[in-house]
Amino acid sequence: MNRFFLDLHALQTVPPSNLNRDDTGAPKTAVYGGTPRARVSSQAWKRAIRTYFRDQHLLDESELGVRTKKIVELLADRIHGLDTSLAGAEALRIADQTVQATGLKTEVPKRKADQAKDGEPEPAPEAKYLVFLSARQLDGLARLAVEGAGDIAGFFRDKKNKARAKEIADSRHSVDIALFGRMVADVADIGVDAAVQVAHAISVHRAETEADYFTAVDDENRDEETGAGMIGTVDFNSATLYRYAALGIHQLSANLGQGLREDEPRTEPVRRAVEAFVHSFISSLPTGKINTFGHHTLPDAVIVTLRTSRPVSFVSAFEDPVRSESSGHVREACERLAAYVPDIERAYGEGDAAPTWVLRVGPNTQKLAGLGTEADSLGALVTAVGQAVADRLDKPA
Amino acid sequence: MSTSPTSVLALLLAGPLQAWGAASRFSRRTTESAPTKSGVIGLLAAAAGIARDDDAALAVLAALRFGVRIDQPGTRIRDFHKAMHPVTGKTMPLTERFYLADAVFVAAVEGDHALLERLDAALRSPVYPPFLGRRSCPPATRVDLGLHRDAVLEDVLRTVAWQASPWYRRRHHHPETGQLTVLREKQPGEDTPADTLCDQPLSYSPAQRRHALRSVVTDRVRPPRESAHHDPFDAFSEDDDL
Lengths: 397, 242
Known about the structure:
The structure holds two protein chains of two kinds.
Chain A: E1 5-17, E2 29-32, E3 35-40, H1 42-55, E4 65-68, H2 71-82, H3 88-101, E5 106-107, H4 110-116, E6 126-127, E7 131-134, H5 135-147, H6 152-157, H7 159-169, H8 175-180, E8 196-198, E9 201-203, E10 210-216, E11 230-248, H9 249-256, H10 268-283, H11 290-293, E12 301-307, H12 330-348, E13 356-360, E14 373-374, H13 378-394
Parallel strand pairs in A: 13-14
Antiparallel strand pairs in A: 1-11, 1-12, 2-3, 3-9, 4-7, 5-6, 8-11, 9-11, 10-11, 12-13
Helix pairs in contact in A: 1-10, 2-3, 2-5, 3-5, 5-7, 9-10, 10-13
Chain B: E1 7-18, E2 28-29, H1 37-47, H2 55-62, E3 65-72, E4 75-81, E5 95-111, H3 113-124, E6 144-148, H4 153-159, H5 166-171, E7 180-184, E8 195-203, E9 210-221
Parallel strand pairs in B: 2-5
Antiparallel strand pairs in B: 1-5, 1-6, 3-5, 3-7, 4-5, 7-9, 8-9
């Protein structure tokens, strides 16, 4: 099939903040080009992206999934929703058998089993691993369970029914599983490899962690010597971050499958997923200590490229750290990219054959204007990228 | 022992972060100080689009002789990682992940020329994009560093120019006196003292990932400096006040 990748790059400035901290409470760091940098882990930003497109309803609820061990309880709820006569322990038993028919192992956690000895109701079995299932998969399994509810064990002894359970668990993956992957350690055939690769964000400049010493006054303290109610320190840094992600459109397409509805183009699920991802990548923000620092920023500049060869990170442009101490880092970072990108595209890229879009804010980003088609809003960028992806998918291989 | 000429494919592995685990289990994800054979063969297999459970196709790649040169060792950083349960909001077990920051390696595989030619092409147009040991570590540069026809692994790792970053070269002013460490597999029939590492890939199948022990010989080499590199502004480096 056609191979192609979507590269997303963003320059984003955050004021004093602590988006992603280590076990000492300090912001995460890395060394690059021999100098210390601020770092935000890929996991933290991926979580922010997932949370964003759920919270902003960028996709229909039925297109999304949950990651949980409590799959038996979730399924029992849905079974009860379909057939109210199936409830409580009975619904749990049917759900458990159905989950096991997909090939997943379940067990009652030992700790809970011990608690239950004191006359409490039997706790629900749980999957041994976190399982990532879409709402549509859960609905499909619930319908299958209700169909076989009369004699659930006998129902799944029939190989055909067992195969149906496996098939439901292996199709109609939710968009976030298709994007970010799923690891189910003991059932290889329902594992999904992530289509997206998110790099750790690092500052384009040298960044040191600083400590804010604070005291808090006790408002109700009427003593003459008031003193402080508490004292402490909060670590923080501020940074202009280079953020990068690569999305394998062909992988995403394979993970998602084709359109499920007759009345929409077959490329629709991929287009919707790409649009949701691009939108969320740009707009999302890890919320670590956000109420302390209020670091609600958006990228100053975004570059998106659709390639048929290999993904290309531009992080090397910042290996030599940006040094402009007095006028911020955005202008020089943009100048670096404006010089670096045409250079690397000429040497290894596809040159003008790779459609590129630029979304940028303010005069500091002026130099990036020539790198691609300028989008005047996030919405316009998302639509243009989604449309280009759908057009490419429609082209014969 | 085969006498037919073999070729060598060289790879450049450089990026802000890399992580090459050989013995990671449970919640402590460590990294070796150099790329593992499993990690590099996995990168090639991914580029070529070999499925995770295709052990037969993997065996062809895993039979390539492997070596790696440490051009810029980097520093080890520890990443503390917390996951929250998306439904209950409870904290999942804490994990520690180790990364190599700021490292540069030259890896090489030796074997059949036609196979290496296919892999070289795959690196330039991969099915699954390459990453440096962990998916969140994309390479900062191109990965393909040249296919050497009728070559021997040891020679390539001795003659490929030193790939360290300009800032690193500036700080290590006398690389000619210094040598680089090469970790390579034994030649057939060679009798050299060797370490063992459990990174010979047998299967990447998620259900049963398997590795075998492999012998690793440590050499010291003195590669040429990149002659073409001449930056007049090196003399005005601001590095000293960093």
